[in-house]
Amino acid sequence: MTGDGTRVVRAGLPEPEPFQPALPGPEFAAHFHLPGDAVGPYTYGRDGNPTWARLERAIGELESPDESAHTVAFASGMAAISAVLFSQLRAGDAVVLPDDGYQLLPAVRTRLESYGIEVRTAPTARDAQLGVLEGARLLWIETPSNPGLDVCDIRRLADAAHSQGALVAVDNTLATPLGQRPLDLGADFSVASGTKALTGHGDVLLGYATTRDAALADSVRLWRKTVGAIPGPMESWLAHRSLATLALRVRQQAAGALALAEALRDRPEITVLRHPGLPSDPSHKLAVRQMRPGRFGCVVSFTLPDKAHAERFLAALTLVDEATSFGGVRSTAERRARWGGDAVPDGFIRFSVGVEEPEDLVADVLRALDTAAQDA
Question: I need a labelling partner for 22 at 20 to 30 A (CA). Which of 38, 133, 239, 320 fits?
Fold first, then answer.
């Protein structure tokens, strides 16, 4: 068995050929030659592409290194989320969603309900979704949750859901397959936005769904074909290229996030501080059992007194981009309430730690906090 750092470098690569690149370049094609009645792997650009196929094999090797798995890549994380939900649910079904998950889930809920699907919600913390699971067709888990960073017990929830005949999908975006393997913990689907840490450079929109069940993969793949939510070959190639540094980035980001969280513990202006790797965090004990050691994600969240204070803090940062999204090599931060859709205070900050030296980043954040407090 190889380690993660070795696996990400080799994942999805074709067999070596003399004088050919280790990772072939993107293949741009709307159609492929189809002589006679011959059947081949590629026919039309909406059905498949060699560049996607390599990326999908690579992600499958990371999400499920010890068992065969099927990955379907999409144009974005929301395309992957929608594909799993809408391919598996029918009118009259019930689905359980987190009420503290990604901010577009309420819009997804509205659409599901318009199709006659019952939507139930509960918080991520304390495995509260168990209380509304009876009779559901699908359970959607987001752990750690975004942006609140609560953690739930995937194994416990998956066992309960399966005992009632429900499917389980886990949004693994924040953890990445190097931080958490939902399929090993009993989930039917591991779904993620590859836009975030998986690709890590803030220049690609991508999503994927991985499952060990071939029939489930076929249903999701058919949904992708039907709605045309396909990834571009250039984006797929960029994503595959970026995987080679995933272990390095995840390691550096996790170390930086923990260093930042520890530095913020005693700041008087911060009322709520969350990071699963922090020993004092409410989710820490469960995160230690469920996530890979030392890989608790790149996100730290904390709450400043009000909107004005938060905006002064963001303006004073010099090593951090004020931007949405997370998981990139450059640190970003945002006042999350500016977007609406999240039940967070006006001063709530979602901070994504990049790969800068932790001591430099911590110094910049502490200086910005001092500046924000002085200008109050």
Answer: 38
Same domain, 153 and 199: yes
**pLDDT for position 1:** 64
Q: Who contacts 101 (Cβ-Cβ below 8 Å, separation ≥6)?
A: 124, 140, 142, 145, 146, 171
Cross-strand partners of 192: 208
Judgement on whether residues 186 and 270 belong to the same structural domain of the protein = no
Q: Are residues 127 and 76 in the same domain?
A: yes
Stretch 256-261: mean pLDDT: 98
Same domain, 126 and 173: yes
**Is 25 buried (19+), middle (13-18) or exposed (0-12) by CB count in 10 A?**
exposed
Give CA–CA dist 218/228, Å, rounded.
15
| Domain endpoint, select from 243, 278, 302 | 243
State residue 39's pLDDT score. Answer: 81
Kindly report the number of other CB atoms within 10 A of residue 92's CB atom. 10
Of residues 207, 155, 164, 160, the one with CA closest to residue 182:
155
Average pLDDT along the chain? 96
The closest of 212, 233, 213, 209 to 223, measured between CA atoms, is 209
Question: Are residue 221 and residue 272 in the same domain, yes or no?
Answer: no
Provide the number of structural domains found in the chain.
2
- Domain containing 276: what range? 247-374
CATH value at residue 354: 3.90.1150.10
pLDDT tens-digit readout, 205-247: 999 999 999 999 999 999 999 999 999 999 999 999 999 999 9
How far apart, in whole angstroms, are the C-alpha atoms of residue 243 and residue 7?
Answer: 10
Average pLDDT rounded to a whole number, residues 134-159 = 98
Which of 243, 278, 310 is the last residue in one of the domains?
A: 243
The half-sphere exposure of 208 on its side-chain side, counting CA atoms within 13 A, is 32
> Pairing mode, if any, of strands 321-322 and 332-335?
parallel
Is residue 224 located within the same domain as residue 257? no
Residue 132 sits in the same domain as residue 269:
no
Q: What is the pLDDT of residue 273?
A: 98
Percent of the chain with pLDDT over 90: 95
